[in-house]
Amino acid sequence: MEILELGLGERLVEYHEAWDLQREIHAEVVAGTRPDTLILVEHQSVYTAGRRTASWDRPTDDIPVVDVDRGGKITWHGPGQLVGYPIIKLSEPVDVVKYVRALEQATIDLCSSYGLETLRVEDRSGVWLPATDAERERKVCAIGVRVAKGVTMHGFALNCNPDLGEFGSIVPCGIGDAGVTSLSAELGRNVSIGEITGAATRCLETALADVRLTTSVSNQAHTGAAANATPTKETV
Questions:
Q1: Is pLDDT above 70 for 77?
Q2: CA-based, 20 to 30 A from 214: which of 8, 91, 138, 229?
Q3: Over 80: is that where the pLDDT of 113 sits?
């Protein structure tokens, strides 16, 4: 899988730039002229609203919102958040739920490597920290995807060290009875995007191996080698 770091560590990327690039690469993967590709990016501050966003989920202070063609509701992207857009051809029969579970598993594995216990919450996508006596369940990674012609778009947003106050003007993902958190908040120290990018990429490579067409049709030995291989990188 090709790893394309879109200005990562160098600049904050405007949302439409990344969305246009997603669509361009999606068409190429569908046509078979480009390999599966993972775009990694840190966005300029923006709210994006999925297809299930209700009017009461939106900001109350006239902050612009970009309506997008992914599933899910509204969320925030911005500085301190690692956003990943896997554009991959799924194995047949296409199973979108299995794909979302693979994305979740990648973050669960990453958090586990930092000593954080995370979990899935029934009927809610993403990766969560369990409730405690002092805190509600809180989401550390949001997931919203689209699959067209068997190829994925959009993806995940992992909170590393963002200003969590940015979520205060919306109902994140339309969920009013839970919170939002970050790796930095949970670990009690600064966890930067640069620190976790390599590990996050490796976890994704492993978790997606079973749902990607190009790896699912290979024999077990080849799949294991691909999961441990160093991915091709490109910085734009």
A1: yes
A2: 8
A3: yes
